[in-house]
Amino acid sequence: MKKFVLGVFFLLISTYPLYAAVASVAVAPIAAGVAGGATAAPGVRVKLDTATFATGCFWCTQAQFQQLKGVKKVFAGYSGGHVPHPTYQQVCTGATGHAESCNIIYDPAQITFDELLEAFFVAHDPTTLNRQGNDVGTQYRSEIFYHNARQKERALYYIAKLNKEKAYPNPIVTQVEPFTSFYVAEHYQQDYYNLHGTQPYCRHVIQPELEKFKKVFADKLISATGHENNPYYSNTDIKHLYVTNAEWKKILPPALYATAREAATEKAFTGQYWNQNAKGTYYCAVCGNLLFRSDAKFSSTCGWPSFMEPVRKNSVIYRADNAYGMKRTEVLCGRCESHLGHIFDDGPPPTHKRYCMNSISLDFHPDK
To answer: Does 356 qualify as catalytic in the annotation?
Structure first.
């Protein structure tokens, strides 16, 4: 037996015990070959496969699976029903039999079907019947639509093992049914989180779930740094940047853009670094500018990472912020002028300052 485990899961045992339990289940070795009917993408000399999953609201599912290495495209749509070419309004009635689903096109040389199944069981709660959070109805059911016998076997095997190991407090209710059809959802449903990351539902429902997902699968993300397409990112260049928001929007992930360029605030106690104690250095996630050292970080009950002082005076700049009827001082990156958070006068000595930062606006490099 091969232990199918992600080291990151063990770091989350106290905070996310359910994820840790899922990760620790033993999974049989993956046989040679690929799962799914391999088809060649136009103009691409690789064989791609398809997985079709239903995990509740497809906005969140799409945003999660788009993060994984080897996943080439994720379509939001409808599957498992009896009405051809349904509309979103029809599916919402529950009368079409369809589930909000995602067709996940992936490269099996980079990510296996078993790994996608692992992500499937982390991405949602597979023990709630026809419900995910506040979304209720058969259209929000948990279901795996298998494309061949191998996918069916792996799905049933995984469910049996998770139930046997009691990974969840309740039995898994995920349905496993043959794939028959998938209807791509309306264009305004596609990439919803990427396009509307600043909307309340995205910020308060999808973003926290996405951050949990990214923590668990940190070593399987498309990029550990996310800066390959950012020509302005540098940990050494201190030259001031003059980049328009229109340009930043093309470069930055939507959640980072919303926080750094539109001054959105991530939900308290959800950021990656709010309670981190590791030794290292914090940089601007937008441009790579040197900001804080871990020895200036202190424990705070506010739910955001807090620092006593920046590494150097020009690491940050300040701006009066009178939004929402409050008088505050905004803290921005000294190089790219991206929003980091705010500064308050209730910190510990000797500075008595609290630089209250958004985790998403920070990159952390641990000491070697």
So the answer is: yes
